[in-house]
Amino acid sequence: MPYPSEYRYSKEHEWVKREGANVRVGITDFAQHELGDVVYVELPKMGRKVKQHESFAVVESVKAASEVYSPVSGEVIEVNKKLDGQPELINQSPHSDGWMVVLRIDDPKEIDTLMTAAEYEKHIGGK
Amino acid sequence: MFEYIPNTPEDQREMLAQIGLSSIEELFSDIPRRVLDKFEKIGIAPMSEQEAKHLLHNIARENLNPEEFVNFLGGGLYDHYSPSVVGHLIQRSEFFTTYTPYQAELSQGTLTWMFEFQTMICELTGMDVANSSLYDGGSALAEAMLMAKNVTDKKKFLVARNLNPNYRQVLDTYAWGAGLEIQEIPFGEDGRIDKQFIRQNLADLAGVIVQNPNFFGVIEDLRELKSIIGNAMLIVSANPISLGVLAPPGTYGADIYVGEGQALGVPISFGGPLLGLFATRMSYVRKMPGRLAGRTIDINNKTGYVMALQTREQHIRRDKATSNICTNQALCALMSTIYMALLGRHGLRQLAELNLQKAHYLATKLARAKGFTLKFRSPFFNEFVIETSKKASSLLKKAQKEGFLAGIDLEPFGLLDGHHLLIAVTEKRTKAELDRLVKVLTQA
Predict the structure, then answer these.
(1) CATH fold of A8-122, please?
(2) Which ipTM did the prediction report?
(3) pTM of the predicted model, to two decimals?
(4) Is the bond preceding residue B412 a cis peptide, omega within 30 degrees?
């Protein structure tokens, strides 16, 4: 699955899509592949403030339960309620329908600390 | 596996040198002197096998064997009759472990009875989902408190003062570690919790923890409690045998049911091993501690059992685990499964009725005797508090000489003074024994 060039990526395998003053966040195709079949997603409460690199969600697969770390700081203003009944969206469509939260970002400069699609592909290339 | 790994003095010297120590004493230097002194008193010094056996035998002789007494002890553990088939079945080699197998699905027999255990606990308690057991009633209650904190994201708990004081100690320990706040719900002259107090302390509430029947044996009226506390979690600890006649906690809005399962066919054996019962509503299943066996079908459409959920445990969640209970009480849970299967729905009701009737017979008779009054004028199940004109401790001493363990002196618990006895009556007690106890206590 290609990594959209307009997204930015974190070392912990989250993606970020800029939407004006907000960002949409999910986990990458590489991450869902490593996790295996996702059976449950624990999402944060609306209004929660998260810091960059802070864990804000848990993805449980048949293999393990893994933390999801926020690629940027901000406030949770939307969560993907569809994941409640269809956690498999993360496997089927990690970069679009399987998004997890929308954050109102504190500092747009944080996005610049993340990797481009080409850099991310290189980052996972060795794995 | 080696059962015993001997070390030569040379081995010991080598191992100590490796970590930079010169003696075994130095290795254990973290143990405070006052603790070591205590051990030295009972003889921690090297002994021959014969000497060690003699020492242990003498210590063991200080125990009383409840089988040699007429037993009215309760307060959390109860002297019920467990049919011998229970003891025989659990000793079958495919069952005889306290552990859940790590490669769970290989053990279809174990998963099958776990599934049945969970189903029976749900039917008994009126809850949606029960785990396959925890350690004991006290730690199950503490796990319920932690779960309520995780569900509500709040830290304040109202805890009934008439809760089993031993459970309260466990709660205090967990609350201290987790930074939770506990406020005590007082009880009134009827021995029941003060609901007005709960109404006045609803702010920032994570949960309300009550016991029913409570530590005094009194049946609480919990019908409207859930509507009073709203989104705070209602946690109810209840003796499972009492549910043969009392309303299941699920029917009056309990969010979490916990209980001590010992009464369901597990011997009292010096107070352990015990069995923690834990059940909740389906919407909270992902926050539930422990593990859950489930039934499914395989690719050939045949029924099979699986370890369906154990996501809160530390071997899955590592440092983010919300519970440190990494195993369960499989053997005790198996005992109670067999016990419940033997009794059946009607048997359990009959058993509960026998307990209730015998306890009421004794309470009525004792309350008519001079020097004894029922402490609380409230409905009770199989246990009650009697106020005594003589000191409870001296009555107990005299009764013991006559072959009776007549109850529990409530003074050490600090809830009532030394003129109160907590007396439990199970189906095992005969009318003749009850009549004799009245005689013994009134003549003491």
Answers:
(1) OB fold (Dihydrolipoamide Acetyltransferase, E2P) (2.40.50)
(2) 0.70
(3) 0.86
(4) no
